[in-house]
Amino acid sequence: MITRSSALLQRTDPPGADVAPLTLESSWQTQLSRAVRDPRELCRRLGLDEAWLLGAERGHALFEVRVPEAFLARMRYADPQDPLLRQVLPLAAEGESVPGYVADPLAEAEHTPGPGLIHKYAGRVLLIASPACAVNCRYCFRRHFPYDDNSPSRAQWERSLDTLREDPSLHEAILSGGDPLAASDRQLAWLTERLEAIPHLKRLRIHTRLPVVIPDRVDDALLGWFAATRLQKVVVLHINHAREIDQSVVDACARLKAAGATLLNQSVLLRGVNDSVEALAELSERLFEADVLPYYLHVLDPVTGAAHFDVADEEARELVAGLREVLPGFLLPRLVREIPGEASKTPL
Ligand SMILES: *Cc1c(COP(=O)(O)O)cnc(C)c1O
Ligand code: SF4
Questions:
Q1: What sign does the dihedral 247-253-258-263 (CA atoms) show?
Q2: Does ligand 2 come within 6 angstroms of the Cβ of 136?
Q3: Class in CATH terms, 108-347
Q4: The pLDDT of residue 255 is above 90
Q5: Which residues carry this modification: N6-(pyridoxal phosphate)lysine (predicted)?
């Protein structure tokens, strides 16, 4: 891990720069802080011309660019249609207002019983463990989320944890965000300890994209608190295309698995990224090679700025029907939509 991270840093530093030796503990954080956050640099690194840059700068003004090096390294040079790049490259189209597309499509603002909590479904409560993400996905339904109002202090967390303690119907705590693994291990260990002290909680679920975009995140410090908890562990990764899964991601999955996690994946069906039977089948096959089972295939949430990713429901159903003809049943993701006010995700 050290070797790979160091190589990465040396490549992005100017020649002759003093590269401080990395410790295992700081390596993912260093990678996080050095993620590409400038549309000009993103276009230059991937060999995209001025026309793409103009669009990237317009989109960036609405929702900033953020791409870690380890993810960027899996993209093809000079290919604006690269399925990984398309997920993170801002476009001018993001500035268009499209009927039906809104800032908070899931109406989450109405379901916050305490700071950092979202409780919509029976038995499960979602905790916003970190407002930050390691990567900014252009289609993200939280791109306009008021994170400033939802970044609780420890005292506020204690009050939110009281809410969980007082509700014996809750069996599962879901760490979400942002990306929960963008929080420090110290913070996550603290939160997990508090959660496992609540007797009616059985499961800890983590929804994260960090093991995909910075696989070094799955380091010994993380595995320490994660493996130690009495709670049953589920990690739901977020991968949309087979090419996101390189050997470093396979290795990160193996470490999570060895620590006792059940690994699942959720994807979003995205125009120009994975909107073909071939792409979806390859994704399922590749996930299983990494010991991950497909869980959900979400249709796009109608968030302002993401309309260009939309795939119509009828086409989505046909794609999944096509997928059923080529894959074993256990590699078929469930096609769902999230409808505000419903008691679960809604199958299409
Ligand atoms: C998606 C979601 C969950 C988890 O739903 P599952 O169907 O159990 O995966 C829980 N809470 C909220 C608020 C969600 O959006
Ligand atoms: S919450 Fe998930 S989909 Fe949204 S930007 Fe973060 S990593 Fe991407």
A1: negative
A2: yes
A3: alpha beta
A4: yes
A5: 345
